[in-house]
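[recover] target loaded
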């Protein structure tokens, strides 16, 4: 099994992501091959140099300093960059991550800079840079006693000796004492069985320092000599020592990161797990097969993505929920010749935030779509960017059409559009207007800015029809209240004197001396009675005594009245028809309901010509019992339709204008409302009673 440090070094150097390790002062410690390659440099060009010596940028430097100060990873996406060292590359685009690594004292010791090239038009082939230069071979020929017989110029140049200084000396004298045991002193016997032997020893130069030489000895038996072919690998050895130190640092980095990192060989066996991976998967041991340890992953995108990365040699990444860990993970896969390196980043918090944000968006849309008002968002060009369900129900889909075209069928914006002030001054506004559907709306406008900075206006259009109806109803109730106050005064100040006058007229009319004026007395008394009946109706509008309600059936009340109603109709050469559905009992004041029916029927009879018919219908709809009385008259004039129920409003020559006012008052006391449908073919009064199961004592004082 490969040493983990060596494997990590290979992963580092062969990663498909450019990586660099810097100290806290932003000096390069080590970069991998890809990092150096993107700038057409060698990995040897970076160690010891400051990042901003190569890539000066004050803004980026501020970010680096922030990471060292906050110890927080920093990521930038779609960052544009021009390599001034290689301007022919043009503009390149990168996602880069700077991750701090702290030491045991919680101080940032090193920084890991990871670059991902996302340039759309990548070069298909990058010129391979040569990382290792081959040195000229060192040649040394010795006899079987290891006495040097001949050396070449490369040998003498590399070690600094003159030819006569080494000829005749034993090669053993130049070998480091610690490496003497590694030198194959039995080379003659060994090479008789093996064509050549390789070994590495330290060789002393003329100046007294040692160089690492990789030797291959070849037996030349016909001349009874050994030929040593050497290569100066001192630099390589120094690099290996540095790499070993770097591997230790990388291992420490991988062990200290808070995410999972592990490596797999080409047979899918675990070869390394960092600390977090070992803690997360305690059941995993090195050498185990990932698909055997986690067989449930075979049917998931883990299996597919891992195999694709291995087969194509291209890095892969995807996001997935790991049920065994209960977390959302971002999986990064880096293939190499030795297998795969897998980096799992916990993104559960990000996913939860995204889900929460999406849920908030859904709630907002549900809220907007549930509003009964027209809600829409307007752009400065007057196009409607967004509209709720009520808006689409009334005006259809907006399709980014301008408001003036949807509302007013115009081809140009409205002159003096009130919304212009909202955009120009960023102030709220309110105005009223009638749109193309014929409805008058009150429109509230408020400015705001979109995420991209675009100024927008959210507008809420409220249907004012109900408000105006309410205002009219309040005005009618105010008039009734005024009439009630007047009626109370009339009841005390007028009716009592009239009773006294009537009594004296009756008494005087019985005296013989007034016998000739009896007809005049009877006329005066009848006029007083008529005035008294008007006052009685007038006072009924202002009754403040409790209205006692009890369970009655509306159909029974109608049937009891029907003979009287039919008799009145026949006397006028008219007819009354009944169409009564089964209706439940309800809380009613029977006496008042009789009066209401009588008033409505008599109004209908008086509105028709001889031969006409009145239809009385009852039925239930939802939670209401409906009494409908339809006549075949000429309808009610539109000019007085909205004022129906106002006291003294009448079109009859001898009418008092109190009949309908009394009906509206009775309906209100009996938990009902009156609607009117009129036209040239007749009028229908709908009295709609609310169904209730609880006895009610309703007082106008309380109302």
């Amino acid at each position: 099994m490969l040493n983990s440090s060596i494997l990590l070094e290979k992963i580092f150097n062969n990663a498909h992501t450019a990586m660099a390790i810097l100290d806290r002062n932003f000096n390069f410690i080590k970069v991998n091959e890809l990092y150096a390659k993107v700038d057409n440099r060698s990995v040897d060009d970076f160690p010891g140099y400051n990042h901003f010596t190569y890539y000066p940028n004050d803004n980026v430097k501020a970010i680096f300093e922030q990471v060292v100060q906050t110890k927080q990873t920093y990521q930038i996406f779609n960052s544009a960059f021009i390599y001034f060292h290689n301007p022919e590359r043009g503009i390149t685009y990168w996602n880069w991550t700077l991750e701090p690594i702290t030491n045991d004292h919680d101080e940032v010791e090193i920084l890991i800079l990871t670059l991902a090239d996302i340039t759309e038009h990548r070069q298909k082939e990058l010129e391979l840079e040569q990382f290792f230069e081959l040195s000229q071979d060192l040649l040394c020929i010795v006899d079987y006693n290891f006495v040097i017989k001949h050396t070449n110029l490369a040998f003498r140049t590399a070690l600094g000796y003159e030819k006569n200084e080494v000829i005749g000396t034993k090669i053993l004298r130049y070998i480091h004492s610690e490496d003497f045991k590694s030198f194959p002193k039995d080379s003659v016997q060994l090479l008789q069985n093996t064509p050549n032997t390789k070994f590495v020893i330290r060789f002393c130069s003329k100046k007294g320092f040692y160089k690492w030489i990789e030797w291959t000895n070849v037996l030349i038996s016909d001349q009874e000599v050994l030929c040593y072919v050497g290569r100066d690998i001192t630099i390589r050895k120094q690099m290996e020592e540095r790499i070993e130190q770097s591997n230790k640092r990388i291992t420490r980095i991988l062990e200290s990161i808070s995410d999972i990192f592990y490596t797999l060989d080409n047979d899918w066996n675990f070869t390394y797990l960092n600390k977090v991976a070992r803690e997360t998967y305690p059941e995993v041991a090195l050498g185990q097969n990932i698909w055997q340890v986690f067989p449930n992953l075979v049917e998931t995108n883990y299996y597919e993505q891992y195999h694709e990365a291995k087969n194509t040699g291209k890095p892969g990444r995807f996001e997935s929920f790991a049920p065994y860990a209960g977390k959302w993970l971002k999986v990064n896969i880096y293939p190499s010749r030795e297998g795969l390196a897998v980096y799992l980043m916990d993104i559960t918090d990000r996913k939860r935030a995204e889900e929460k944000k999406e849920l908030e968006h859904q709630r907002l849309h549900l809220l907007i779509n549930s509003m009964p008002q027209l809600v829409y968002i307007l752009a400065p060009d007057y196009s409607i960017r967004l509209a709720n369900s009520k808006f689409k129900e009334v005006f259809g889909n907006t399709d980014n059409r301008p408001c003036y075209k949807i509302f007013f069928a115009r081809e140009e914006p409205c002159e003096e559009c009130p919304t212009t002030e909202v955009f120009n001054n960023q102030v709220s506004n309110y105005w009223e207007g009638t749109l193309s559907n014929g409805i008058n709306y009150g429109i509230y406008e408020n400015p705001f800015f979109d995420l991209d900075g675009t100024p927008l206006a959210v507008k809420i259009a409220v249907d004012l029809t109900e408000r105006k109806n309410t205002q009219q109803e309040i005005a009618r109730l105010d008039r009734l209240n005024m009439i009630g106050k007047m009626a109370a005064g009339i009841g005390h100040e007028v009716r009592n004197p009239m009773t006294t006058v009537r009594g004296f007229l009756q008494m005087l009319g019985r005296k013989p001396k007034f016998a000739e004026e009896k007809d005049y007395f009877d006329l005066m008394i009848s006029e007083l009675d008529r005035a008294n009946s008007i006052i009685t109706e007038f006072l009924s509008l202002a009754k403040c005594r409790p209205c006692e309600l009890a369970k009655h059936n509306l159909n029974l009340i109608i049937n009891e009245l029907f003979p009287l109603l039919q008799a009145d109709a026949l006397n006028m050469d008219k007819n009354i028809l009944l169409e009564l559905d089964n209706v439940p009992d309800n809380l009613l004041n029977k006496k008042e309901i009789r009066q209401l029916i009588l008033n409505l029927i008599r109004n209908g009879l008086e509105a028709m010509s001889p031969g006409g018919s009145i239809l009385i219908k009852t039925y239930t709809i939802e939670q209401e019992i409906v009494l409908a009385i339809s006549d075949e008259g000429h309808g009610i004039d539109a000019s007085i339709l909205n004022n129906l129920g106002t006291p003294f409003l009448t079109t009859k020559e001898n009418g008092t204008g109190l009949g309908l006012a009394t009906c509206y008052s009775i309906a209100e006391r009996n938990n009902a409302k009156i609607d009117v449908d009129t036209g040239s073919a007749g009028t229908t009064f709908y009295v709609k009673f609310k169904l209730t199961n609880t006895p009610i004592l309703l007082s106008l004082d309380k109302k």
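[recover] notes: Residues 121-135, 694-703 have pLDDT under 50 and may be disordered.
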